[in-house]
Task: inverse folding
DNA sequence: AAATCATATGAACATTTGTTCATATGAATA
DNA sequence: TATTCATATGAACAAATGTTCATATGATTT
């Protein structure tokens, strides 16, 4: 097997297993999909947001309730709810001055549970 | 229902739905678990690491192979593999000078797939 | 219409994070 | 034993992120 570097700019390595790399390359999803996937998990990757999701998994709640529950400022909860909203993980409905948030779909709980399973089995 | 603030330091809100908050509070997992869960998802929340996991889902690979595949430096791949190792998402075996990495368990693929399902259904 | 209340948001700040560069480690080989 | 090569790692730096503070918005109530 030849030691070809393929003229890559960034990589300072020699290709060791050319066939493996070639094969895996054909199996990789589009960069855009992997980017989106990382962005999705990034949303789960914060304690405050995890707590919010966990709370909403139990019951619909307004912003103030969540702030009290987590003992955090209304502002920071509101900022985080915006992130969750953009990721389509939560939805909301307005009732007068109060805005109620809830989980958007069932995937949230599923992803959540898989994470817990992984942690429990380590 | 009374407007009690419960003497929270940080929250600038009035409790609106006291019963809801009380109930949800009893259902919340321990802070430590939620912290660990967030830490786990944080690991998935980076494009480079997602790509590495995706590649390893297809085949065991050495560090150089991954660097070539992703067109990144060996150093940055190695740093990220350390993160994945600490999260128990990948394992490795040494064969002479070469270190081969692979997925540690099947949860990785499952979490991965759930993420993709969520993205596809939005 | 003015005041009140729940929520949203922009800017600033501190912290965290990912990559790079230089170098260390540790195993095979000459 | 000296060299080579694959990998690991520490420090530095830039970029991203979460919270806070001040204030805006928008709906209700007086």
Result:
């Amino acid at each position: 097997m030849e030691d070809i570097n393929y003229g890559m700019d960034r990589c300072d390595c020699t290709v060791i297993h050319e066939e493996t790399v070639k094969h895996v390359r054909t199996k990789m999803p589009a960069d855009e999909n992997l980017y989106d996937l990382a962005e999705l998990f990034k949303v789960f990757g914060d304690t405050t947001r995890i707590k919010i999701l966990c709370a909403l998994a139990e019951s619909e709640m307004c912003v103030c309730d969540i702030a009290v529950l987590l003992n955090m400022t209304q502002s920071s909860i509101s900022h985080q709810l915006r992130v969750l909203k953009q990721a389509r993980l939560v939805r909301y409905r307005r009732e007068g001055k109060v805005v109620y948030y809830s989980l958007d779909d069932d995937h949230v709980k599923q992803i959540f549970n898989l994470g817990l399973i992984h942690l429990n089995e380590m």
The helical segments of chain A are 18-27, 31-44, 47-58, 63-70, 74-86, 107-120. The mean pLDDT of chain A is 88.
